[in-house]
Design brief:
single chain, mainly alpha, two-stranded antiparallel ribbon, 7 helices, 52% helix, disordered N terminus
Length: 165
């Protein structure tokens, strides 16, 4: 967060903007709400995905029952053990990444090879921008199996807890 302040401050100084406290407060509130909206969207998507699959829903509830018992207000140390729920969150983020693409500008003086593809090296006067699609990568059947568009938290098996015991 301090890095954001430095960049924001440098931007203001560079562009010689004159701002008052009200503008700063309004901008901070806007940034907070944008982040909050993104988080809310992902929480809703995860809940929707869990509720859309009865078996997943039963496993999430079973895990909660197993770990919480009768404790209506479990401590964080117990909540952090909800590994199947964590798998559900990761699977939901895989299907709906917060940033569906990333831009890359290689600064290397050598060509970079990604399988059969070559990313050209940067020259003194020219660079090449590459747009990498996280969204499409997360739907590649070579990486995620025969049905990459379906919600399947078991794609993250290392995290799953056996709730059948």
């Amino acid at each position: 967060s301090s890095g954001v302040c430095v960049v924001f401050g440098a931007f203001l100084l560079q562009n010689k903007y004159k701002i008052d406290d009200e503008l700063i407060v309004n901008d901070i509130i806007s940034m907070f709400l944008i982040g909050r909206e993104l988080l809310t969207t992902h929480i809703i998507q995860t809940i929707y995905n869990i509720l859309s699959d009865r078996d997943v829903y039963i496993r999430v509830i079973s895990e909660m029952d197993l770990l919480f018992g009768e404790n209506a207000d479990p401590p964080y140390s117990v909540i952090s053990k909800l590994k199947y729920l964590e798998s559900c969150i990761l699977e939901s983020l895989r299907l709906n990444p917060p940033q569906p693409t990333v831009r890359s500008v290689p600064k290397t003086r050598n060509n970079i090879y990604l399988g059969k593809y070559m990313m050209k090296k940067a020259s003194r006067h020219q660079t090449t921008d590459y747009i990498l699609s996280i969204y499409n990568t997360h739907r590649d059947p070579n990486l995620w199996g025969p049905d990459p568009n379906s919600f399947n938290p078991d794609r993250f098996p290392v995290l799953c807890v056996d709730t059948t015991a």
